[in-house]
Amino acid sequence: MILQECSKADIENSSALFKHWVGNNPHKGLGVLGFTNHNFRIADNYNESIHWAIPIESDTADVLAMWAHKDAGQTYVEGLLNALSHYDSLLRKDNGLFIGDMNNNVRWDHKTKKEWQWATYIDELRKLDKHSVWHKTKGEEHGLESVSTLFWYRQPERGYHIDYVFGSENLISNASLQIGAHEDWLMHSDHVPLVLDIAN
Question: What is the pTM for the complete model shown?
Answer without folding.
Answer: 0.96
